[in-house]
């Protein structure tokens, strides 16, 4: 969907979002069990400029990671981000082990053979400084040379433009082990009402494999007030909302998810939010 940069970001489609919440490792991801993405097919709904999507693909051992966003400008920025992340990554000639700043670091160490199996050859992110890309332009992405390459960054990440609440993307047909929805429920709720949000939760359930995990970072109800002032339609929609974020667990259980696992709260100021995991049980 082509959304003009002159209009209000009524879908939360902020440009430069990650300059407002800068990170090396996204603090929301560090709350999750380190094995959650290992060998997983992952969908990141509302991927924005792809920073979280690329981190999952690069540093968490995911097999394939799909980012989808309603705003094509952001999706183009996400493809660019993939190249930036690739340009800064440690060259493959090193026998890489978990990077010093990888979330697994500092946890109880296993024997090397086991550990290498757990985190096989994760090259260091941000090995080269950002200035290299500015001086020499980003590195080209080489063709995948082996089937294993296809499941390693940067070949294991792809982006699509779609209003995912209302439209499938081709990857959905193969289903996912994990669906990530960070800071998007408010925007879906305000644009589509309670029905739109229920539809989103049903869609997540339908694309997850049995036992698959839904990782949700819902925005607090208090933050809806500022968002709805952005646009007359959102303001009107907000009047009919019956559901509140504290109802999401009940709605998800009616759809076929187990109880919420509250893994923590993170973020600064207005970005301070809980992260919850729901397992598809039914
Ligand atoms: C506030 S941003 C959060 C970005 C990212 N998930 C994060 O937390 O780092 C919300 C994103 O969801 C996207 N979005 C909103 N509604 C969407 C929809 N129906 N389908 C796909 N993307 C959507 C917006 O364009 C925006 O990039």
From TrEMBL:
Report the family membership.
Belongs to the methyltransferase superfamily.
Membrane-crossing ranges are none
The EC number(s) attached to this protein equal: 2.1.1.-
The record's GO molecular-function terms, alphabetically, read: O-methyltransferase activity; RNA methyltransferase activity; snRNA binding
- Entry's CDD domains? AdoMet_MTases
What are the protein's UniProt keywords?
Answer: Methyltransferase, S-adenosyl-L-methionine, Transferase
The UniProt entry, under PANTHER family, shows: 7SK SNRNA METHYLPHOSPHATE CAPPING ENZYME, BICOID-INTERACTING PROTEIN RELATED
Do you know which InterPro entries this protein is assigned to?
Bin3-like, Bin3_C, BIN3_SAM-bd_dom, Methyltransf_25, SAM-dependent_MTases_sf
Q: Which organism is it from?
A: Obba rivulosa
Has keyword Transmembrane helix? no
Asked whether the keyword Methyltransferase is assigned, the reply is yes
One example of a Gene Ontology biological process annotation: snRNA modification
Q: Name one Pfam family in it.
A: Methyltransf_25
Which protein is depicted?
Answer: RNA methyltransferase
Q: Where is this region: Disordered?
A: 86-108
Q: What class of enzyme is it?
A: transferase
Which residue intervals define the domain Bin3-type SAM in the entry? 26-282
Q: Superkingdom of the source?
A: Eukaryota
């Amino acid at each position: 969907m082509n959304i003009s940069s002159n209009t209000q970001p009524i879908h939360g489609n902020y440009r430069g979002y990650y300059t407002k919440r800068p990170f090396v490792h996204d603090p929301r991801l560090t709350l999750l069990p380190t094995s959650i993405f290992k060998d997983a097919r992952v969908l990141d709904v509302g991927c924005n400029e792809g920073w979280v999507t690329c981190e999952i693909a690069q540093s968490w051992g995911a097999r394939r990671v799909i980012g989808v966003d309603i705003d094509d400008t952001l999706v183009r920025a996400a493809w660019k981000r993939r190249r930036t992340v690739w340009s800064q990554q440690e060259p493959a000639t090193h026998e890489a082990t978990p990077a010093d700043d990888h979330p697994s670091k500092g946890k109880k160490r296993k024997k090397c053979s086991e550990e290498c199996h757990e985190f096989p050859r994760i090259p260091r992110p941000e090995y080269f400084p950002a200035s290299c890309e500015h001086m020499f332009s980003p590195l080209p992405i080489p063709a995948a040379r082996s089937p294993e390459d296809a499941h390693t960054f940067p070949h294991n990440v792809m982006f699509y433009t779609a209003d995912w609440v209302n439209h499938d993307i081709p990857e959905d047909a193969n289903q996912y082990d994990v669906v990530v929805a960070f800071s998007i429920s408010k925007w879906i709720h305000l644009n589509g009402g309670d029905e739109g949000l229920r539809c989103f939760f049903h869609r997540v359930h339908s694309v997850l494999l049995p036992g698959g995990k839904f990782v949700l970072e819902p925005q607090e109800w208090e933050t809806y007030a500022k968002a709805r002032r952005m646009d007359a339609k959102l303001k009107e929609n907000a009047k009919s909302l019956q559901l509140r974020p504290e109802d999401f667990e009940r709605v998800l259980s009616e759809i076929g998810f187990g109880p919420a696992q509250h893994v923590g709260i993170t973020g600064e100021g207005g970005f301070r939010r809980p992260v919850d995991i729901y397992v598809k049980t039914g």
